[in-house]
Amino acid sequence: MVHGRKVLREFLAGEVRLIYARVLANGKLYLLPDGDAAAQRAWTKTEACCPIPGCENPALTTVARKRGRDGFRHTGGGAGSHSAVGVFHVQASEMISQYLQKKYPSSTVTKEQPIDRARTRIADVMITASTGESFAFEIQYAGLRADEWEARHASYASESIPEVWLFGHAGAQLRPARGRANEGLVTISPVHSMAGVGQTILWLNPLTEQIATVIERVTVKHVMYSIPATGPTGELLIMPLTDFRLASRRNGTFHFTSDRVEELIANGRAVRKIWAHEAAILAHQVAAEQARLQAAATSQEAARRVAAAKQLAMATAATKQEPAWAASELRTHLFERFSGTWPAWLDVEIPPGLPVPNAQWQAMLYSAMIMDVKERRTVTAAAGERLLGLGANFDAQSIIRQWFDVLVENQILMTMVNRPPESDSGVPRYVVVDEAARSYWTEASQYRYTKPDIGAGICMVCEGPLRSQPDVWRGTHGHCF
């Protein structure tokens, strides 16, 4: 989680609170500085009124709050009875207007500005540079359908006016994602996605004077990147309004952005470039291998190249699933379990591979068969193959057994060889290392589970001496097993 719960709670708070008042003398809106409620109370009662047009009870006073920001409230019997959406929209428009006027004093900033003479569309805030170029801000708290957004966007495009969409911090435009697996995430709607094309999705909170965007985390070559989220959920990244500026990009488009937002966009561009490069290399290798197969003179050469092509095909198929795996709940859960790192034994490359990213199928088997096991349990490659559900076209069991051997080296599993003393071969049985076995492994490290010539040993269950060779191979007495 990028931010602590308090920061997120303050940004997402939907409490209706007036922090602007309209000055009676000139009609302009005045922002009450936090902590100045007592000093401005007398002035407010005589020189200011409610900022919402048409308010039936416009008289205001100030209120100092121990929890939260100072603000204004209505006096007398009337409380204004304004909708939350209306209050938030007025104050958000004023916040953006004042910020742009202060940051760009040579430009003209206007609220409720028509974009043409026919008044087909009215921008919430419009900034016009001395060169005549205009830039519109749309502040959206109310619900909005996709076709409505497209109509507004088209009207701005017809006048060659770039627009920035700032969605409201409360109500219809910012909702927490459902489900325990999505705790701390917010929902990205189709309208959000359309507004974020070519830039980033932005929300604003006029009470905290902050802008937020949504990010997702992906891992490429064991490096984690934060990039702009593409849906359906994302993690909020909250920034001060003062970090933002109007900027143009190489393609001639204008954006409301910050250094952090530009870093996210650059990360996303770099990740997509890496994925595209890897996919292109694999595709070229597969094509080249297929061409060589056609020219193979002998069955042996053809068989060898078929195997190589199969491995490349597996890698290609796995690469296509990387984005979905990067955004999966299981991957996020295991990253948290291992404190933000990914164990090397959960990303083992075993030729010819499977049509699933190595980290994905190994994480699936680890979580289903090994993780949080309290008692000793036998695991098999056949069971792992069934869990992956890849069918009979892949040598999955052999690959899974090789991975099990890596887990034995890392003391995640241990092996016991079931075979009679006179036999020279045996099939290893893989057993999850529980707490008792791990303790025994540490205290009696002279015992080696997989060696047939280990000599005398100690029973890992009753800790009594092992006298027969089968018991030594097994690691326990027959009656203890």
Structure description:
- This is Competence protein CoiA nuclease-like domain-containing protein.
- Residues 89-170 form the Competence protein CoiA nuclease-like domain.
- InterPro entries: CoiA_nuc.
- With 481 residues, the chain is of the alpha+beta class.
- α11 packs across α12 (396-409).
- It folds into 4 domains: 17-81, no CATH class; 87-257, 3-Layer(aba) Sandwich (Trna Endonuclease, Chain: A, domain 1), CATH 3.40.1350; 263-319; 328-443, Arc Repressor Mutant, subunit A (Orthogonal Bundle).
- The strands form 6 sheets. Strands 6, 7, 8, 9, 10, 11, 12, 13 and 14 form a 9-stranded mixed sheet that branches.
- The chain is elongated and about 100 Å long.
- It is built from 14 helices and 21 strands.
- The protein starts with a helix and ends in a 7-residue tail after the last helix.
- β18 and β19 form a beta hairpin.
- The model is unreliable at 418-426 and 440-455 (pLDDT under 50).
User: Strand portion, in percent?
Assistant: 15-25%
CATH topology of the largest domain: Trna Endonuclease, Chain: A, domain 1
**Could you say which overall geometry the principal axes of the C-alpha atoms support?**
elongated
What's the CATH architecture name of the largest domain? 3-Layer(aba) Sandwich
Q: What profile does the largest beta sheet have?
A: 9 strands, mixed
In DSSP terms (H or I, runs of 4 or more residues), the helix count works out at 14
Query: Over the alpha carbons, how many angstroms does the gyration radius reach?
Result: 32 Å
Low-pLDDT residue spans: 418-426, 440-455
Structural class, by secondary structure, is alpha+beta
Q: How far is the N terminus from the C terminus?
A: 46 Å
Mean pLDDT over the full residue set = 81
